[in-house]
Amino acid sequence: MDGTRQQRGDDPDPAVRDVELRHLRCLLAIVEEGTFTDAAIALGVSQAAVSRTLASLERTLGVRLLRRTSREVTPTPTGLRVVAHARRVLGEVDDLVRDATSGQMRLRIGYAWSVFGRHTLTFQRRWRGAHPATDLQFVRANSPTAGLAEGSCDLAVVRRAVGDRRFDSAIVGLERRLCAMASDDPLARRRSVRLADLSGHTLLVDRRTGTTTTDLWPPGSRPATETSRDVDEWLTTIATGRAIGVTPESTANQYRRPGVVYRPVRDAEPIAVRLVWWRDDPHSATPTAIELLSELYRSD
């Protein structure tokens, strides 16, 4: 039985292969226009062509879809279900075409935790002023490539190197590391902290997208760790005082949470901010985005 299911999955039913978009458009036109004559006018074909296309669809599916009388055309119960599926399929095809043909008129930038920190609003405003024809969208995706590998964005901002050779990247700036801690932690009274000050705490890390590991500390003085799944869980846990976090300064700009304070870690190396894109299919706006972001980070 398992082999049969596998075979069916690998070799679709012939009826599935033979149903074409023209069949579905013809069926919808008949139902929406009410007659074969009006459907032919809407589709720009002959009435005979409409009849042949519908007959082909019914023959392929092996079911009757419409009841035809001299006065009206109405869907059968099966026809109603097929019409609902047809609307959904054709709607998705229309979305696919719009997405493919207007992709260069939209720039989606993915991010896992934070976008560009205090530069985010300036980037948005300058982009809108200089490139009004290209709609800018930010997409949050907590994955190692901030949604790029999943197809949800055209460019991704990441803060650790992406080793996948399918992608290319450019460093656009550097950000300080900050320590996030509960506001009643004794360290919160200081203006800044050192890594040695944190070794006795529990460090909260996101292993998928986080920028900090215990490798920041020398062997023998590394803190214990706990794992979080996203920035909201990270902040909630830190606010309880159970753990601390070390994060780029952009996190502090984007996520201010009661009970959590941020302090610079003055002896920790800064974090590189990278833009990442598909090597073989870069968005046409990629060089422009790199230039603008590099200028904003240089202003620091």
Question: What this model shows, in words?
Answer:
The chain starts with a helix and ends with a helix. Residues 1-9 have low confidence and may be disordered. It has helices at residues 2-10, 14-18, 21-33, 36-43, 47-61, 77-101, 120-130, 195-198, 231-239, 249-254, 286-298; strands spanning 66-68, 73-75, 106-111, 135-140, 155-158, 167-175, 177-182, 202-205, 224-227, 245-248, 260-264, 271-278. Helix content is 39%, strand content 21%. The radius of gyration is 28 Å and the shape is elongated. With 300 residues, it is an alpha/beta fold. A hairpin with a 4-residue loop joins strand 1 (66-68) and strand 2. It has a five-stranded mixed sheet, with helices on one face. It is built from eleven helices and twelve strands. It has three domains: 2-101, Arc Repressor Mutant, subunit A (Orthogonal Bundle); 103-174 and 272-298, D-Maltodextrin-Binding Protein, domain 2 (3-Layer(aba) Sandwich); 177-269, D-Maltodextrin-Binding Protein, domain 2. Helix 3 (21-33) packs across helix 5 and helix 7 crosses helix 11.
